[in-house]
């Protein structure tokens, strides 16, 4: 039975697409069958270097313009990692029963389904949150992201999700010196979610998006996502904070 995990944030620019992509890749490396679904915007096809091969998207599958399997694309050479893209230029729209049918049809084929969705969109409360088993809020270490993340956290809790985790993304090496927020515990308390990963600011991640070798991580970042995947799978791994 697939575990559905919602990857979301309260504002743009926190890097939830990058987190979704690298977490999915790390889970697939552990021989888990993983499906990434873009719920509200499209970018992962570019990150995985498959944009020119995608024909059908999530809206096509929901509207019956294609078979659901036609919208599922392998992410390059990663055998255990697949993607359903969001439509380009318009928002994904379907009713709750159709969305549940989509998840039901996918259920037996994957171990993890990661749904990436914008926490400010109506689909979060109408479709994605009510059908998710868990949620990960991606936040950068600043006060604006903290406030936006708390709004989303309250929405998720209101939708019945009890397991809400926090991924702190783009933590700079100068964090202790600049102190954009008092400390990470402050961020955890304000968003009201249990910390599951701290991802360092790593420019090689974004640089890799436009190269022939997408998802090329620095050693520290790679270890962070490997450990992130282990914690998602229920294994106790100490947090790596650099």
Automatic annotation (TrEMBL):
InterPro entries: CobQ/CobB/MinD/ParA_Nub-bd_dom, P-loop_NTPase, ParA/MinD_ATPase. Keywords: ATP-binding, Nucleotide-binding. The keyword Repressor does not apply. GO terms for biological process: negative regulation of cell division. The keyword Oxidoreductase does not apply. It comes from Youxingia wuxianensis. PANTHER family: SEPTUM SITE-DETERMINING PROTEIN MIND HOMOLOG, CHLOROPLASTIC, SEPTUM SITE-DETERMINING PROTEIN MIND HOMOLOG, CHLOROPLASTIC-RELATED. Gene3D superfamilies: P-loop containing nucleotide triphosphate hydrolases (3.40.50.300). One of its GO terms (cellular component) is cytosol. This is AAA family ATPase. One of its GO terms (molecular function) is ATP hydrolysis activity. Residues 5-210 form the CobQ/CobB/MinD/ParA nucleotide binding domain.
């Amino acid at each position: 039975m697939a575990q559905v995990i919602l990857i979301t944030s309260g504002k743009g620019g926190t890097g939830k697409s990058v987190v979704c992509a690298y977490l999915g890749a790390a889970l697939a490396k552990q021989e888990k069958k993983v499906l990434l679904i873009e719920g509200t915007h499209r970018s992962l096809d570019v990150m995985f270097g498959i944009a020119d091969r995608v024909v059908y998207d999530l809206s096509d599958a929901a509207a019956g313009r294609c078979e659901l399997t036609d919208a599922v694309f392998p992410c390059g050479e990663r055998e255990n990692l697949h993607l359903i893209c969001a439509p380009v230029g318009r928002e994904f729209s379907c009713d709750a029963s159709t969305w549940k049918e989509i998840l039901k049809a996918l259920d037996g084929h994957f171990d993890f389904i990661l749904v990436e969705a914008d926490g400010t969109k109506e689909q979060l409360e109408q479709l994605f949150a009510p059908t998710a088993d868990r949620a990960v809020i991606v936040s950068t270490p600043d006060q604006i992201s903290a406030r936006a993340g708390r709004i989303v956290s309250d929405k998720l809790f209101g939708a019945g999700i009890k397991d809400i985790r926090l991924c702190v993304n783009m933590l700079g090496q100068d964090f202790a010196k600049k102190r954009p927020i008092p400390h990470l515990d402050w961020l955890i308390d304000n968003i009201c979610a249990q910390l599951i990963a701290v991802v360092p600011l790593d420019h090689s991640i974004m640089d890799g998006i436009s190269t022939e070798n997408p998802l090329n991580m620095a050693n520290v970042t790679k270890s962070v996502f490997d450990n992130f995947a282990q914690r998602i799978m229920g294994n106790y791994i100490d947090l790596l904070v650099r």
